[in-house]
Structures are given as C-alpha cells and as structure tokens.
From TrEMBL:
Domain of life: Eukaryota
Protein family per UniProt: Belongs to the eukaryotic RPC34/RPC39 RNA polymerase subunit family.
Localization, UniProt: Nucleus
GO biological process, one term: transcription by RNA polymerase III
Coiled coil: none
Keywords: DNA-directed RNA polymerase, Nucleus, Transcription
A GO cellular component annotation in the UniProt record: RNA polymerase III complex
UniProt entry tagged with the keyword Magnesium: no
Residues that span the membrane, as ranges: none
Any matching Pfam family: RNA_pol_Rpc34
Gene3D superfamilies in alphabetical order: Winged helix-like DNA-binding domain superfamily/Winged helix DNA-binding domain
Upper classification of the organism: Eukaryota, Viridiplantae, Streptophyta, Embryophyta, Tracheophyta
Matching SUPFAM superfamilies: Winged helix' DNA-binding domain
Protein name per Swiss-Prot or TrEMBL: DNA-directed RNA polymerase III subunit RPC6
Length: 233
C-alpha cells in the first residue's frame, strides 16, 4: 500500500480561485500603495465583473482591505492586510486612518509657541525650533525638520507667528543676512500676553537716536544705512 501524503498546512489564501490568486499577487506586489480595480483589470486582463467579484471575495476572506486615497477621494486602493498604507494614500504624517489628526497638530503648535516664548531672542531660525522638538522627551512630540517647518507655516497662517528675513541687525544679529526667521506676532497666544508688534523688527524700534531723527535732519530715514538695508530685505 502506498503511503498517504502528509497534508500541507493551509495558508491564509488557500481556497481561492485562480483569478483571486492573480489579483492578490498583484496587490501584494504593490505593498503600501496597493492597487485600484483599474490597475487590476489592466495588469491581469481579467474581465471587470470578475475583478469586482474577486475583490469582494478577498475582502470577505480578510486577505485585503480597502483604503481611501486622501489626495483623490474618488479612487479606492486595495492593500494586502499585512501592509500599512503609504503616505501618498494617507495624506502624510498628520493623518490617522484617513482623518486629519487635529488634536496632535494643535498640541504641537502650542509647544512651538511655548518654545518661542521661552527663548530670549525675539527671532529664531527653523533649525533652532527643530532642535527643541528633536530633543523632546516624548516620541509623540519629536518632529522631523520638514514637520517642524509645516507646524511653523501653520502658525504663520494663524497669524500667531510671522516669517521674516534676517537683515543682520539688532534682533537678527545672530543670524545670516537673508536667512528666514520666525517670531511671535503681537497677537495673544499661549500664555495670553500681548507681544511686540511689527515695529519691533524695524531698525527704528531699537535705534537710540530715534528722538533726533527727522526727515530733513542730520539723522534722517533717507540717509540711514540701517533703514535702507532693512528695506532691501
């Protein structure tokens, strides 16, 4: 009598038909990007109705999952369950399960404002703010340089922070001329204290001779080299 073959252990994809195997193989090959039904049809040459049927069966078998494309919500991508969607689908670092993580963004904005409040200098560069987030004790508060830039840009849109170019004078003495810097606006934020307005960034705001400055005097805005440098930037 011939020996009976030992049955092979069943895989999670056992029991699916040939069309489903081909489509599942394609989806797995796309990893975190997954595949659309259009891509399935063109790559496998399977008829549209059979693709629809196969996708429904694979979803029911918990072999694939449907993920919306946040950049184009009219397109659905299908991923193998073992993969996480890539940033191109989720919308970036600020999304969780397809939804904008507003609470995280607002929390990081508050931290950024507190950092600016604690710093002695009135203007800081992106790298200075980034260094604080990089050293954060909580992993949730650690940001990349680009993420830090995005938080600052968000604060600029909120008119809580202003973006200015360094002129190398007064508050900008520690930065390179032309370098992009950030400072708090005169609006209330964080602790609620009113901050310096836009005049603080003008050389006149820190000039000890401003009381002697007149349009036709020896000290005049028209002959002031510092004021002209500020205008150039």
């Amino acid at each position: 009598m011939s020996k009976r073959k030992r049955p092979e252990p069943k895989s999670s994809s056992s029991g699916i038909n040939e069309d489903e195997k081909n489509i599942l193989g394609l989806i797995r090959s796309k990893q975190g990007m997954g595949a659309t039904t259009y891509e399935m049809r063109t790559a496998t040459k399977i008829q549209p109705t059979l693709v629809t049927r196969a996708v429904a069966s694979l979803k029911k078998s918990n072999l694939i999952k449907e993920v919306p494309n946040m950049n184009n919500k009219g397109i659905k991508h299908f991923l193998a369950v073992e993969f996480q969607p890539c940033k191109e689908l989720t919308g970036g670092d600020w999304y969780i399960d397809g939804a904008l993580d507003v609470s995280k963004i607002e929390g990081l904005k508050e931290i950024c404002v507190r950092i600016l409040e604690r710093l002695k200098s009135k203007v800081v560069t992106l790298d200075v703010i980034y260094s604080y987030f990089e050293k954060a004790s909580s992993d949730a508060d650690k940001l990349s340089r680009e993420q830090t830039r995005e938080i600052l840009k968000n604060l600029v849109l909120d008119n809580v922070v202003m973006e200015v170019k360094s002129n190398g004078l007064t508050d900008f003495s520690a930065t390179r001329i032309g370098e992009i810097c950030y400072k708090l606006t005169g609006k209330k934020s964080g602790g609620g204290e009113v901050r310096d307005g836009g005049f603080a960034s003008v050389p006149c705001g820190a000039c000890p001779h401003i009381g002697l400055c007149t349009p036709d005097g020896v000290i005049s805005p028209t002959t002031c080299v510092y004021f002209q440098k500020w205008l150039d930037f």
